[in-house]
Amino acid sequence: MDLTKILALVKSMIVVLAPQLKKATSVEGVKELREAVRGLLKVAAFLGARFKDGVQFGDFAAFYANLTQDGEFKTVMNEAWDGYQKIGAEVKDIDAGEGLEVVGDIVDEVPNLLEAFKKDKATTEPADAPAEGEAQK
Ligand SMILES: [Ca+2]
Ligand SMILES: [Ca+2]
């Protein structure tokens, strides 16, 4: 059984279980929390992929470019930011079902994160000019 199947199985269990574990007394949902988690995971995957070969100024420029031009990235970031003030109230009111939904979001992102942090040379960009201090030694 490969990881994709395990993740799909875990996800389907979460989808079935989460509604059962919700408390009727819960007044706050987890919309803002989930959006924030999704945003953080997206940023983590992005940074993981970019920083594999060390941190360069270009990485920040690329992050900014993504933030302003990549439609999906932009949407996720806007959703994460929008309404984040409610997260505290949501966390205080969280029940097991809502917690599972958040876990489900993390499960969804596991393949992206693994891909981003995987050590391989294939996706590494060609090195730019040598960093100052390293040149001409
Ligand atoms: Ca939000
Ligand atoms: Ca709640």
Task: List the defining traits of the structure above.
about 140 residues, mainly alpha, binds calcium ion
Structural class: mainly alpha
Low-confidence stretches: none
Per DSSP E runs of 2 or more residues, the count of β-strands stands at: 0
Ligand kinds: calcium ion
* Beta-strand proportion: under 5%
Q: What order do the SSEs take from the amino end to the carboxyl end, as H and E?
A: HHHHHH
Q: What is the overall number of helices?
A: 6
Q: Please outline the major beta sheet.
A: none
Q: Can you give the helix content as a percent range?
A: 55-70%
Average pLDDT works out at 89
Query: How much is the radius of gyration in Å?
Result: 19 Å
The first-to-last residue Cα distance is 50 Å
Name the overall outline: flat
Structure description:
This protein is mainly alpha-helical and 137 residues long. It has a domain at 26-117. It has six helices and no strands. It has helices at 3-20, 31-50, 57-69, 71-81, 87-92, 96-117. Helix 2 (31-50) crosses helix 4 (71-81). The site of one calcium ion has 7 residues, from helix 2 and helix 4.
